[in-house]
Amino acid sequence: MALHYQRGEIAGLARLIVSVVIGVAVTVVLRVTTSVDVPLAGWAIGAAIFVLWTWGMLYSMGTEATAAHASREEPTHGVTMIAVIVLAMVSLGGVVFVLGHKDHTSLVVSTLASVIMSWAAIHTIFAVHYARIYFTDPVGGVDFHQETPPTYSDFAYIGFTVGMSFAISDTDLSSSKMRRPALAHALLSYLFGTVIVALLVNLVAGL
């Protein structure tokens, strides 16, 4: 049991590190072989791999598997969460740079992709965070209005609903331990949504 716990302990962080390393490697290869300068492509690719890898592992888990996995996934989750948010904020910084270089198509595309994938990565990491909080004693904090225990797909619903609407819809948050991260999540979602729209409008206006 202890061995399983230790593996779960590094799972999320390991996924993030491997994903970013692959993304950076692809970016370096592109730079060397094509001379295309896409500095944020590494994070865009890495974030895409992280999101797909995470949901590929978690989305189909049933109720028992979700409860068992979320309760041990993972003590280093906070490190993973901070790393994702920091990398995502760096991608927002790239928007300021790209607005002055709109004639570089590859740069614009890579920056836009990095912001969009940062948006998806943030909602993914918060969905996993909600599951971890829910299954931490005392279990609960969200009323899903169903008799069966929630699965990761239910937490994905919460994560991406907050991400797209900055609010909770038909699931009720019944404790402060859920409301606090939901507030931070909504604020980050609003920031990214605003930046994505502003970037698209600016690019279209410059055509």
Features:
transmembrane; 76% helix; two-stranded antiparallel ribbon; mainly alpha; 207 residues; single chain
Description:
This protein has one domain. It is an all-alpha fold and 207 residues long. It is globular and about 55 Å long. It is built from 7 helices and 2 strands, in the order H-H-H-H-H-E-H-E-H. Helix 1 runs parallel beside helix 4 and helix 5 runs antiparallel to helix 7. Keywords: Membrane, Transmembrane, Transmembrane helix.
Strand content: under 5%
The overall average pLDDT, rounded, is 84
* General shape: globular
Number of domains: 1
Helix content: over 70%
Q: Helix- and strand-based class?
A: mainly alpha
Strand order of the largest sheet: 1-2
One letter per element, helices H and strands E, the order comes to: HHHHHEHEH
Radius of gyration: 18 Å
- What's the number of helices? 7
Largest sheet data = 2 strands, antiparallel
What's the total number of strands?
2
Low-confidence stretches: 1-10
Distance between the termini: 59 Å
Keywords: Membrane, Transmembrane, Transmembrane helix
InterPro entries: DUF1345 (IPR009781)
Protein name: DUF1345 domain-containing protein
Transmembrane segments: 12-33, 40-59, 79-100, 107-131, 182-205
